[in-house]
Amino acid sequence: MPDLSLVVLIGATGSGKSTFAARHFRPTEVLSSDFCRGLVSDDENDQSASSDAFDVLHYIAGKRLAAGRLTVIDATNVQSEARAQLVRLAREHDVLPVAIVLDVPEQICAARNAARADRAGLPRRVIQRHQRELRRSLRHLEREGFRKVHLLRGPEEIDAAEIVTERRFNDLRHLTGPFDIIGDIHGCRSELETLLGRLGYALERDALGRPVDAVHPQGRTAVFVGDLVDRGPDSPGVLRLVMGMVKAGHALCVPGNHENKLGRYLKGRNVQHTHGLAETIEQLETEDDAFRAEVAAFLHGLVSHYVLDGGGLVVCHAGLPEKYHGRTSGRVRSFALYGDTTGETDEFGLPVRYPWAEEYRGRAAVVYGHTPTPRANWLNNTICLDTGCVFGGTMTALRWPERELVDVPAEKVWYEPAKPLAATAPGGADGRPLDLGDVAGRRIVETRHMGRLAVREENAAAALEVMSRFAIDPRLLPYLPPTMAPCATSRAGTGGETAGGAADEEGFLEHPAEAFAAYRADGVREVVCEEKHMGSRAVVLVCRDESVARERFGVPGGVSGALYTRTGRPFFDDPATTERILHRVRESAERAGLWAELETDWLLLDAELMPWSLKATGLLRRQYAAVGAASGAVFPGALGALEAAAARGVEVTQLLGRQRERASDAAAFTEAYRRYCWRVGAERPAGTDQLAGIRLAPFQILAVQGRSLAGLPHTEQLAMIDRLIAAEAEAAPESGAGPEAEAGAEPQDALSAPAAVPGGGRTRLLAPTRRLVVDTEDEASIAAGIAWWLDLTGEGGEGMVVKPLHALVRGKDGRLIQPGIKCRGREYLRIIYGPEYTRPENLRRLRVRHLGHKRSLALREYALGLEALDRLADGEPLWRVHEAVFAVLALESEPVDPRL
């Protein structure tokens, strides 16, 4: 019997149905009417509860069938009315109903019931009635709708029976390709030969020179989506070639509506000779009877659709919603052949087709044809390959799993179309971003690296607010970076040795020794320490030109990419500034040869954009500059008064000392945030480069056309980035002082001070990322890493990020480990925790930090980011990419200490 079916056991009480079911099926597959009767009444033999019991049974059976689970009904089912409900249930869920009849003599049934305490008093007439109803049913079971009927007579046959499940004809999940899926052909044999040649197939011909097979040297399999015949010049030639490929195992084929009509004609049915059938009939008349018989047999054996590649690919003629994938019914076959219509007709008299692909949200990619369109485009993980070759368009194939399109032009217009070719699906080539139904409520996102991740309803609501009101054009938002967890609280200053063996040093809340120890505990030997820049996290999507942005991402002219924050907001209100930065990155990529080397027309970069004041001006003014200004105003007067009191002999020594320490801490605080502030672009003197002062420090190429690069070792990533930076330096040597010379500002207002800026000229945009590789099991290497960090932060740097040298690293338990741990400098943390955080009493309190939630959040966002990159690289539709992106944004609203 089919592996997905509704199995109905039929037999009188006492015929052994429950025993048979327990022997041949799993307990979860069997639904017993007696058990359901007990559920609703606490008595499995309470016949008054039968109506409610069968309601429960049908409900559970429906849920199982909807989930694609084999379901067995253990009840007498001897009455036609009871069976009719089950046949209807199977049809509702597009599965095959199978009947297994247990025909056991009355005497044996009576003896078995008598041996059961709960059935000992069952009247003999009940068994006799069941037997009469069974006899009346046997001849009509197939007519009732059962696809298969198995009749087992007597205990011997029942005991000897063996259940053998068979794959549905459409279930080819075990075939993983690679495939070349070819759109509607309509008798255009010459174009088909050309297309097969472009795909790498070698044609084989018969003695008359006619193509009868095509073989790919790498073992690829062609898959035809139907409509092989009608309208074109050589339908028999197309059939001969396709049938030969299918027979030789080099191709698969599903039927189109034109094959269905031709098949009915060849069976002698009365069909109208329209829509090109007349031409096919005329062409077939030149062939012999044997060929026509072979065609008829071939068309009769075609299966409505195929599920391939582990369930990730569905091929059919007119499209198929997810609920029909792998199902078998007349309704499924009809949809696969003809699609669905709204019941209306257009101005050309043709039916208006229901836009099922616009609403598709399935995991499997659906590849189909049927509806001519000017060009093949992905829409919500579906793609139509009918590009109207017979109408003078092209013949298109999709390489799978590469998702590459290959097409050849028609040699001529073979058949005038009833209406001009046009994209009919709403959204056209662009598809659409997430809609409310995709993100409202609690969501589960499947990820390849961390399994199923949940998004709470309240977090989804917060993300929706950001995405809908503040984010950039969603077509240019394919990724959001994850948050990053800090290292464990440093033990430096607590009276013991640090994890790296170095002597304790007072005043550290974070120390690299803890990061090295954490990775060593996870089994990671080599880590790379990367300089943490004094800016804001930025994602850069840069296309080779505007046409690439238009074709790949569907954005209007004048846009060649995007530059946005880690919450999806644009960095600059002025699009022209964004385009200038993208132009500079694009130029550098060209000079560095990255476009050609990576075989891509677009790059997605993870970076830091400096200065921090570029995006955080409001935060700096309200929160940090205000503290600096207040301390600058208060402490001079307070210290002066205390010093005067001390001069008069008043005992204020301790108070004066404390206030001097506080003034020193406040000055250090002001100095710390001043390093992140300098003027840029238009704030500078006339004639200055409009990008002057802006520095972009890319540190990772996340993805390119056709692949994610997130798995590359960080040293390889940074080597490519170095080439990018070197290319810019060769094109435009640095003119003028760097940002460090530009940050001279008065403590009262670090944001309004004049900048020491030289004259005009083009300044350099791209900034390098300094790094150091550390061996976590080598004490000397650890000591060098700590010394490097101390030098970096001593110069005023923010700190560093410690990452496993090799990306996508898993721990001993097989789980992902932290992709990066940030270790911030002592002075930078003043900005985060306040001017006086280094005082011993404050450090003792701050050392009690709960990092568990932050670490969990970082890992979940990392897995979601990887999933977005994989889906982007695979060419999946926008809504699928955004599902993961949106989840990252939603997780950002989870409550966590913002100082971490």
TrEMBL record:
<dbReference type="InterPro" id="IPR027417">
    <property type="entry name" value="P-loop_NTPase"/>
</dbReference>
<dbReference type="InterPro" id="IPR024028">
    <property type="entry name" value="PNKP_bac"/>
</dbReference>
<feature type="domain" description="Polynucleotide kinase-phosphatase ligase">
    <location>
        <begin position="462"/>
        <end position="730"/>
    </location>
</feature>
<feature type="compositionally biased region" description="Low complexity">
    <location>
        <begin position="731"/>
        <end position="747"/>
    </location>
</feature>
<feature type="region of interest" description="Disordered">
    <location>
        <begin position="731"/>
        <end position="758"/>
    </location>
</feature>
<dbReference type="InterPro" id="IPR032380">
    <property type="entry name" value="PNKP_ligase_dom"/>
</dbReference>
<dbReference type="InterPro" id="IPR050126">
    <property type="entry name" value="Ap4A_hydrolase"/>
</dbReference>
<dbReference type="Pfam" id="PF16542">
    <property type="entry name" value="PNKP_ligase"/>
</dbReference>
<dbReference type="InterPro" id="IPR041780">
    <property type="entry name" value="MPP_PrpE-like"/>
</dbReference>
<dbReference type="Pfam" id="PF00149">
    <property type="entry name" value="Metallophos"/>
</dbReference>
<dbReference type="InterPro" id="IPR004843">
    <property type="entry name" value="Calcineurin-like_PHP"/>
</dbReference>
<feature type="domain" description="Calcineurin-like phosphoesterase">
    <location>
        <begin position="178"/>
        <end position="373"/>
    </location>
</feature>
<protein>
    <submittedName>
        <fullName>Metallophosphoesterase</fullName>
    </submittedName>
</protein>
<feature type="domain" description="Polynucleotide kinase-phosphatase ligase">
    <location>
        <begin position="764"/>
        <end position="895"/>
    </location>
</feature>
<dbReference type="GO" id="GO:0016791">
    <property type="term" value="F:phosphatase activity"/>
</dbReference>
<dbReference type="InterPro" id="IPR029052">
    <property type="entry name" value="Metallo-depent_PP-like"/>
</dbReference>
<dbReference type="Pfam" id="PF13671">
    <property type="entry name" value="AAA_33"/>
</dbReference>
<dbReference type="GO" id="GO:0005737">
    <property type="term" value="C:cytoplasm"/>
</dbReference>
